[in-house]
Amino acid sequence: MKLKVFRYDRESGDSRYDTFELDPSPGMTVLSALFKIQEEMDDSLAFRYSCRGAVCGSCGVLINKVPRLACRTRVESLPGGEGQVKLRHFPGMEETVSWDPKEEVLVESLPNLVKIKDLVVDMDKFFEFYRAVEPTFKPASEAPEKERLMDPKAVSELEQYTNCVLCASCVGSCPISGKEEEFLGPAALAKLYRFHIDPREAEDDSRLLLANDKSGWWGCEFNANCKAVCPKGVPPILGIGKARKEIQKLGKEPK
Amino acid sequence: MHGLRDELKKLMFEYFGVFREGKKMEEGLEKLLELKARYPEVYIDNKSAVFNQALSYALELGGLFDIAEAVARGAIARKESRGSHARTDYSDRDDENFLVHTIYRLEGPGAEGKPGGKPVLEYLPVRLGKFPVKERAY
Question: Residue B133 domain-assigned?
Answer without folding.
Answer: no
